Amino acid sequence: MARAVAGDGAAFAELYRRHVGTVLAYLRRRVADPEVAFDLTAETFAAAVTALPTYRAEGPFVGWLLGIARNTLLHSLRRGRVEDAARRRLGHEPLALDDEDLRSVDERATEGAAGLEAALASLPTEQREAVLARVVDERPYEEIAAELHCSEQVVRQRVHRGLRRLRADLEDAR
């Protein structure tokens, strides 16, 4: 991660290879068209490249990426189209996908979803609920604590432990 933040393209390429399936699975579950999921994934990683200097390593890199993916999706839904500003800033041309490419997108999304779902399922219930509420739904700790009838500190601890375990499980699966 430190090498990618410092501008090492090969290090970012490795991060991309590790996490593209997870990001694609996240987006594919939220949009019906695999081509749109692919475009959103590309824009997510382009935005991540441009935002790398702001990455603070306070949580797993994949959580940060999923936050960017969520924001990219929401922005695109508001605009009624997939934005391509980050891709254009990087000077990348859009890719045209054929039927084989679209099948590959769906396969990669399925693989990423299966790995993420298995890792989530392996978490204790309290950690899984806290991670999903905080990372996927981006809800505030205070709200999650009220729902789970515990303190914010307990929620923070559950999220931290859950993310640490998810990171280890997903890295072991690679």
Q: Quick gist of this model?
A:
This protein has 174 residues and is mostly helical.
Explained architecture:
The chain has 174 residues and is mainly α. It has 2 domains: 120 residues, RNA polymerase sigma factor, region 2, helix turn helix motif (Rna Polymerase Sigma Factor, Chain: A, Orthogonal Bundle); 51 residues, Winged helix-like DNA-binding domain superfamily/Winged helix DNA-binding domain (Arc Repressor Mutant, subunit A, Orthogonal Bundle), CATH 1.10.10.10. Helices cover 75% and strands 0% of the residues. It has 9 helices and no strands. Helix 2 packs across helix 4. The protein is globular. The protein starts with a helix and ends with a helix.
Please give a handful of descriptors for the protein shown.
Rna Polymerase Sigma Factor, Chain: A; 174 residues; 2 domains; 0% strand; mainly alpha; Arc Repressor Mutant, subunit A
